[in-house]
Amino acid sequence: MKENYVEFVKLERKLNDVEIKIESETKSDAMKLFAKGGLNYLAKFVLGLSIFLVVIFNRNQPVIVFSDKFNFAPFSRFISYPSNIENCISLPFWVFINNYVSRQLAATLIK
Fold this sequence. Notes:
Layout: H1 5-57, E1 62-65, H2 76-79, E2 88-90, H3 91-110
Antiparallel strand pairs: 1-2
């Protein structure tokens, strides 16, 4: 040990430098993973929560009210469910349709 002390100290310093580098790389990889996946899910959660709150607080308000020229005879009660206005599209139904259409478009564009 006494004979190779200088070499031992040099190797130990190199080992410490490598350990510090590995630790910093691990931390940066974790931050990259959070930035890549975590922020995406956080944004989706905030958007979903805001849409949910808007629908809950404005569920009786129609999005579009059509004139009497339009007749949605078999589906009119379903389309305007929480509101009792004739020939209208309610906010929950509008959100449901937009969600469905956007998912179909995304699935079509990804293929």
